[in-house]
Amino acid sequence: MKLVVFDFDSTLMDGETIDFLAEPLGFKERVAAITERAMRGELDFFESLVERVSLLKGLPKEEVEAICARLPMMPGAEETVRKLKERGYKVVVFSGGFRSATRPAAEKLGLDADFANVLHDKEGVLTGLVGGDMMFGFSKGEMLTRLQSLLGVSAADTVAVGDGANDLSMFAHAGTRIAFCAKEVLKKEATATVDEKDLTRVLELVG
């Protein structure tokens, strides 16, 4: 068995989920600036996530789901996932963002599984709190090793595709490491880079 793990925001999806969610509250630019610094590795991921999610307090859950349902997929995402599965890969997504976004995307793209965080709500309104499996800089690497053990997949048969500093931990356990439109901090650890928004380029790099 072989495994491909994609990051979600700015990899499978064209943009950052939390930026889209912050826009109706008037915090898009503020949140985007924090996101950018976190993805460059300048901020602790956990602290930056907690700070950004706190700004979403008061957003109706119904609006969250509506926004996440229409997030734009990266060009080539559907074709890439389909062809990887035809080649016998299990294809999953890890996101330091939210299952409100990864769940509908996983259904649309036909992913085998999605792993992300959950935005806490009370009486249908976001509280500004978050929890889940992808809260820390090390989370993706830890989850990847669990999946490899569960599926019996070696690092050599694992492909990781991402764009930011919080993808470094999964790169550490993947034989093929593709930096997709990525920050320099991730490119340094990659075995290959793609610098254009076309996910089908990944197919050229994966056997």
- Helix-strand string: EHHHHHEHEEHEHEHE
Biggest β-sheet: count, sense, barrel? 7 strands, mixed
Q: Tell me roughly what share of residues is in helical segments.
A: 25-40%
Strand segment tally: 7
Report the radius of gyration as a whole number of Å. Answer: 16 Å
Number of helical regions = 9
Q: Report how far apart the termini are.
A: 13 Å
Provide structural commentary.
The relative contact order is 0.19. This protein has helices at residues 17-22, 28-39, 45-54, 61-69, 77-86, 99-109, 139-151, 168-171, 184-187, and strands at residues 2-7, 89-98, 113-122, 125-132, 158-162, 176-180, 192-194. A seven-stranded mixed β-sheet has the order 4-3-2-1-5-6-7, with helices on both faces. A hairpin with a 2-residue loop joins strand 3 (113-122) and strand 4 (125-132). It is 38% helix and 23% strand. The two termini are 13 Å apart. It has 207 residues and is α/β, with parallel strands linked by helices. It contains nine helices and seven strands, in the order E-H-H-H-H-H-E-H-E-E-H-E-H-E-H-E. The protein has a single domain (2-204), classed as Rossmann fold (3-Layer(aba) Sandwich). The chain is globular and about 45 Å long.
